[in-house]
Amino acid sequence: MTILVTGGAGFIGSNFVLDWLRGSDETVVNLDALTYAGNLRNLASLQGDARHVFVKGDICDRALVGSLLQTHQPRALLHFAAESHVDRSIHGPGDFMRTNVEGTFALLESVRPWWLALDSSAKEAFRFHHVSTDEVYGSLGMDDAAFHEAHPYQPNSPYSASKAASDHLVRAWHHTYGLPVLTTNCSNNYGPYHFPEKLIPLMIVNALAGKALPIYGDGLNVRDWLYVTDHCSAIREVLARGRVGEVYNVGGWNEKTNREIVETVCALLDELKPDPAGSYRRLITFVKDRPGHDRRYAIDARKLERELGWRPAETFETGIRKTVQWYLDHTDWVTEVQSGAYRDWVQANYGERAATA
Ligand code: NAD
Ligand code: DAU
Questions:
Q1: Does ligand 2 have an atom closer than 6 angstroms to the CB of 135?
Q2: What range(s) does the NAD(P)-binding domain occupy (predicted)?
Q3: Closest residue (by CA) to atom 11 of ligand 2?
Q4: Nearest residue (CA) to ligand 1, atom 17
Q5: CA of 189 to the centre of ligand 1 (A)
Q6: CATH code, 2-191+227-252+292-313
Q7: What is the pLDDT averaged over residues 107-131?
Q8: Angle between helix 199-208 and 316-329 (nearest 10)
Q9: pLDDT tens digit string along 168-198?
Q10: Which atom of ligand 1 is least distant from the CA of 84?
Q11: What is the complex's ipTM, to 2 decimals?
Q12: What is the DSSP string of 291-346?
């Protein structure tokens, strides 16, 4: 059996592929365009492993996706590929509309004729699993109840608007064409291989380099944090036993202000790799706020817990300690990402296979 993953060289996608292949002998076909955020180095441990078939390509390329479906006949497609960074979406929304909206549309339209032609048991068994975000629900006040699956969509950034559009497309392809879809809306992930443009890895990397730790606005914006392998386990559960057409919210019940996050990172670094100049806290700098910065996200994950018995394995305390330690142990990964040298590694190790389907 085979699964087709899009965006499997990104942060969550690569964690998912590694996690999946730790517990399964199924082949994973990994379609990724290798944008700045895609890093095959994350999957170096799978080098030479026949269960991982990497294909460099764009989800907008219908001919390519169609041929992958015909060749590999996957029992499921897990759609991670996206432009994912809110700040980038503010400065350049075009790529977000193309990949997140048009790309999801192209993927659905590539899958539909192939799926329709399957025999009835394969057709029934197939799943299109769309990986999405809590940001589609908008922003909460401090006293509001956490987002549940029926919360109205109120996206506020170009990124979240593009993800909201993709969620709606997936929903429509189920209701209109009967495509067996599943959607998960997850809160902020953190952990290994997180690109150092996002809050937690940026703070770790900057602190170690003695650079400023920029906190937007007053630093009291709240996010709910989930260790990435817990997101992977939630996706596995939903894929295996989720009800077709349903949406499942995924979260860690770990609401933290950005100040708390940065202070926790500094405290862990002070313990694990003491700052020669005293404490990394000295580097904290409050900077201009992100335009339209959502104040609070919080996820009500009770549906997933109740229906599928899913629980996160990590607490925030265990997950953040592992994460800080991972970055301390993988300074070569950070250096390569920052210098872009991982692209040379891909060329040397994957060569033509990375350049063609
Ligand atoms: P990421 O930016 O780290 O990785 C995205 C991957 O998609 C990269 O490997 C990139 O090369 C690939 N990609 C981009 N455009 C592509 C295209 N047109 N065709 C093929 N591949 C393309 O993102 P991430 O943080 O791993 O997020 C993965 C998914 O999870 C996204 O859909 C995101 O919206 C969602 N999500 C992320 C978080 C989070 O905290 N990071 C939380 C909830 C949901
Ligand atoms: O909620 C899920 C979302 O989480 C995902 O859908 C997105 O793909 C993912 O990027 C993430 O979005 P955020 O905008 O919440 O993540 P980011 O790490 O960019 O920022 C987290 C918080 O930290 C946010 O309130 C902005 C703030 N921040 C961020 C950066 C990069 C700072 O204060 N300083 C910074 O330098």
A1: yes
A2: 4-323
A3: 188
A4: 58
A5: 12
A6: 3.40.50.720
A7: 98
A8: 50
A9: 999 999 999 999 999 999 999 999 999 999 9
A10: 2
A11: 0.99
A12: TT---B--B--HHHHHHH----S--HHHHHHHHHHHHHHTHHHHHHHHHTTHHHHH
Counting from 1 in the atom list of ligand 2, the atom nearest the Cα of 157 is 14
Which residue's entry shows tokens 């607490």? 315
- Please report where in the chains the tokens 């100049």 appear, as a residue: 277
Q: Which amino acid is at 349?
A: N
Number of residues assigned to the chain: 357
Identify whether the C-beta of residue 147 lies closer than 8 Å to the C-beta of residue 200. no
SS3 75: coil
* pLDDT over 50 at 356, yes or no: no
| Protein residue with its CA nearest to atom 3 in ligand 2 | 188
Pairing of strands 188-190, 181-186: unpaired
Handedness of CA 220, 224, 226, 228 (dihedral sign): negative
Nearest to 219 by CA among 298, 289, 324: 289
Residues 6+ apart with CB under 8 A from 129: 76, 77, 78, 79, 181, 182, 183, 184, 235, 238, 239
Q: Where are the domains of the chain?
A: 2-191+227-252+292-313
- Residues sharing a CB contact under 8 Å with residue 187, sequence separation 6 or more, in sequence order: 134, 223, 224, 225, 226, 250, 251, 252, 297, 298, 299
79 CB under 6 A from ligand 1? Answer: no
